[in-house]
Amino acid sequence: xxxxxxxxxxxxxxxxxxxxxxxxxxxxxxxxxxxxxxxxxxxxxxxxxxxxxxxxxxxxxxxxxxxxxxxxxxxxxxxxxxxxxxxxxxxxxxxxxxxxxxxxxxxxxxxxxxxxxxxxxxxxxxxxxxxxxxxxxxxxxxxxxxxxxxxxxxxxxxxxxxxxxxxxxxxxxxxxxxxxxxxxxxxxxxxxxxxxxxxxxxxxxxxxxxxxxxxxxxxxxxxxxxxxxxxxxxxxxxxxxxxxxxxxxxxxxxxxxxxxxxxxxxxxxxxxxxxxxxxxxxxxxxxxxxxxxxxxxxxxxxxxxxxxxxxxxxxxxxxxxxxxxxxxxxxxxxxxxxxxxxxxxxxxxxxxxxxxxxxxxxxxxxxxxxxxxxxxxxxxxxxxxxxxxxxxxxxxxxxxxxxxxxxxxxxxxxxxxxxxxxxxxxxxxxxxxxxxxxxxxxxx
Length: 444
What we know:
- This protein is an alpha/beta fold.
- It has a domain at 4-34 and 64-149 and 187-280 and 306-369 and 378-396: Vaccinia Virus protein VP39 (Rossmann fold), CATH 3.40.50.
- Helices cover 43% and strands 14% of the residues.
- The chain is built from 16 helices and seven strands.
- The chain has a seven-stranded mixed beta sheet with strand order 3-2-1-4-5-7-6, sandwiched between helices.
- Helix 10 links the parallel strand 2 (192-197) and strand 3 (220-225).
- The radius of gyration is 27 Å and the shape is globular.
- Residues 1-11, 26-70 and 172-185 have low confidence and may be disordered.
């Protein structure tokens, strides 16, 4: 179920996410009985939470503090690559696409609001499917329909015969074209789409998808195995759009990556990304904290560190992007138990890859964490919520055509004059019959 903020955006997103998570299949009903074998008492849970507040685990923060030490490593990239390879080669890999599909839908919705064409676009971190690329082409197809509507409107303005010919041309494609009420700007057109991923097996799954689904006419795909930690295979100033989803939260040198993307973009080019944020899996983190304190007397890092929202805009600005924008969604998906959640994270290729992770997790700690998770967070149906916080980043390559803030003191209007202008406008309005009498404006 989606959190209230996401639920207000409407639709069946909550049902889609939970139904998709259920379709992938639980580990087994015996997991709750296994967790009960080593119970964590309410007293232990309460004391564990109090201790956790006093002894927070040493988690590297993803932000500007790491920008000064870009060589510092947070994640075990060979391990992450092995996790993603295992997920891509699994026969049921498509069962775990539900989170990527939801984020792709929301990310491309933001791109649809930008009135620009993107002849050369790059997707970094394709994953095991066409989550972003298929939706990018959908925007272009919708633009083609708008262009057909514009041609019909122009023909209708010239002569009735030309309008009939334009309508017949539109109907020949199986689409019914209605005259537009206003001109629609050119947007979303992509001619060349570069699909990039650091995992060859995941990129092969994307290529496999497009081998069985025709690429729209007039558009081409190019595939690249690209490590986000290294150089990008694009010349400076050669790309109109860079999109990334569910990839950046595993990059060690995030400031360096953003600078390389900024250099690859053309002037006024767009960078759009979705990445997991600091509140992701907070319930799982708390459950393991309680279990570690109860069983081991200390805290280990069972969940990878994530970025914080207040840092994302600063990272974009420090990389040279203009008009940086960051907004957030909080998604909550419910699972039967901790073991099912762990299996789904593994199926997504999103398991813990921190360099500070424990070498192994004992059965005692796992069962205690499962019991703590259930004791702290189970809802009335016995399901366990898992939070996924998502940050959406938008940045623009600098260009002279972009709006710029005025110099300090440049505005010619004094804010103190606003009250006088408003009062004068109010006095000038004639009184309406039967309208209640308004109180005089406050004067100092």
